[in-house]
Amino acid sequence: MQRKTLLPSECPIARSLEQVGEWWSILLMRDALQGLKRFDEFARSLDIAPSMLTRRLNSLVDAGLLQRVPYNQRPLRYEYVPTGKGEDFRIVLMAFISWGNKHLAPEGESVQMVDRESGQSLQLMLASATDEQPLPLERCCVRPGPLASQAMRERLQNL
């Protein structure tokens, strides 16, 4: 049975899951954004079967989150480097860290978000696109965009 694709969905969460919803993909993006580049580095970090690693790396390349860059010609070997689209995934990983630390780490944080220069702890927040003023998450909601279908408008009307 072939898996259903979420790409035709107008929901940005569903479309995003189509690209990176498989947990190996998210962990590969974590490692790539933390500086790992080579197949053997990913394999060692994740203890993942080579065939699965190959499939997941290929899917991230196909999705435009990683690019394959040759680093050796004989034999031909590649590094996997985040693209701009891949770099933009960093905020998603930061949200995972924040949520995981809050809800899944009763023993305390093993990973923290900090300012690279000062070392100060950071918290995830949203800001107004107009004036960049921070807003508490409680004030944030979603609403239909200009191209939302009638079904999406009805789904979001009471939020």
Describe this structure in words.
This protein is an alpha+beta fold and 159 residues long. Helices cover 42% and strands 12% of the residues. The strands form 2 sheets. A two-stranded antiparallel ribbon has the order 1-2. A two-stranded antiparallel ribbon has the order 3-4. β3 (126-127) and β4 (134-135) form a beta hairpin. The longest helix has 15 residues, at 90-104. The mean pLDDT is 91.
The poorly predicted ranges are: none
Q: What does the largest sheet look like?
A: 2 strands, antiparallel
**Terminal-residue CA separation:** 36 Å
Strand order, largest beta sheet:
1-2
Give the helix level as a range of percent.
40-55%
Order of helices and strands: HHHHEEHHEEH
Layout of secondary structure:
Elements: H1 12-20, H2 23-33, H3 39-46, H4 50-62, E1 66-73, E2 76-82, H5 84-87, H6 90-104, E3 126-127, E4 134-135, H7 150-156
Antiparallel strand pairs: 1-2, 3-4
Helix pairs in contact: 2-4
In brief:
With 159 residues, this protein is of the alpha+beta class. Helix content is 42%, strand content 12%. It contains seven helices and four strands.
